[in-house]
Amino acid sequence: AQLTESGGGLVQPGGSLTISCAASGYPFSEYDITWYRQTPTKGREWVATITSRGGMTNYAEPVKGRFTISRDNAENTAYLQMNSLKSEDTAVYYCYAPSRGVRGQGTQVTVSS
């Protein structure tokens, strides 16, 4: 079982970025997906969760209204669309299937002018 993030990079404040999480080796559509982020100063921070069929989503307060989590079970891929990015969103972003115990290697998102 494996999760692989992609799509990170450098973006200016106020900009947008969508990162992806591709799954393989397990029945992706049967498990919830969580995005979290990590920095050396703030540690690990939960960002958002989507249920297995995509029917429910939850967001951390700092990203609510700016980030959107989604998934395409036919493509075994989850997404995190990030709008109105701020410098404090700079972090390594990880996708995680907690009930499966699978996490990705992370993708760096840097928000800076």
Order of helices and strands: EEEEEEEEEEE
Distance between the termini: 37 Å
Poorly predicted regions are none
Q: Which structural class do the helices and strands define?
A: mainly beta
- What sort of overall outline do the alpha carbons produce when their principal axes are compared? globular
Kindly provide the radius of gyration, computed on alpha-carbon positions and rounded to a whole number of angstroms.
Answer: 13 Å
Estimate the strand proportion: over 45%
Helical element count? Answer: 0
According to DSSP, the number of beta strands is 11
Write a compact overview of the structure shown.
The protein is mainly β and 113 residues long. Helix content is 0%, strand content 53%. The model has no long low-confidence stretch (mean pLDDT 97).
Lay out the secondary structure.
Elements: E1 2-6, E2 9-11, E3 17-24, E4 33-39, E5 43-50, E6 57-59, E7 67-72, E8 77-82, E9 91-97, E10 102-103, E11 107-111
Parallel strand pairs: 2-11
Antiparallel strand pairs: 1-3, 3-8, 4-5, 4-9, 5-6, 7-8, 9-10, 9-11
